[in-house]
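Quick one before lunch.
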Amino acid sequence: MSERPRIVVSRWIPEEAVKLLREAGEVWVSEADRALTPEELRDAVSGAAAVVSMLHDRVDGALADAAGPCLRVVANVAVGYDNVDVPALAERGVAVTNTPGVLTEATADLAFGLLLAATRRLGEGERLLRARRPWSFHLGFLLGTGLQGKTLGIVGLGQIGQAVARRARAFGMEIVYSGRSRAAAAVESALAAERLPLRELLRTADVVSLHCPLTPDTRHLIDAEALAAMKPGAFLVNTTRGPVVDESALADALRAGTIAGAALDVFEREPEVEPRLLDLDNVALSPHLGSATVETRTEMALLAARNVAAVLSGADPITPVLPT
Ligand code: GLV
Ligand code: GLV
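Model of the glyoxylic acid complex:
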């Protein structure tokens, strides 16, 4: 009998998914309560046929070479895969998979929640209460910005962008979007969404929400110039990847009042957060929680495990990422 394939999981995943993986091979799960260092990851993957990776793991040709010739699949437990060098793995005959679909609604919920936290100043209010400062209801107290009748600009009208737009419609917002390609006519009409060039979207929108993947083209898509193009009363929401925004330029813009506020779930150098942002009241912050529900994280890990099982059994991956 041939040896069972080695499956390496770079960090904790829900038990249901580990169980599924155990049916497909010998499973090793990192027990570190932090991301493995590149060296630790390289050592861990040695001899692996499958690697279940997290968005903080850099997965490139060198890592595939460290795994060795048995490596057949890398299942990234995230919809984004900017941490994976897909062409380098494809060259080595290694399949790459991600977890689209299962985190759409959770991420859209978080985006909208964080937007409300920023526009309604929830963090400021909570900080005031926890500081036990005196307060009383009055008509001018901690006034925020309403969303009804305002325009939401979605950058990247994919699955998550559309899910955010649906929520915004329920809040009485108008939708404009920008993106590499035009959305299907049915999507445009269901959301009453109009496609605009990015510059025009930035000039038009009261809230700009980012839902494009991180690629060389979208790195620092929102830079000082883009921020200057936004309305002075506008809000920026980022729940995709930190480097899509020039964080230092954003801190400048928030401090100068170039825009009214921001809601950030992701950061340029995670887990580091630009220190100036931490000192500003007009930004709502959360530590990359977009998909962080029990239900969604379980579905993500199960989908990654099913991808591993499929490839190791000789079948096609379920949700492959193809080199472009
Ligand atoms: C989370 O950020 C993901 O890409 O799934
Ligand atoms: C506010 O609490 C109100 O009753 O209007």
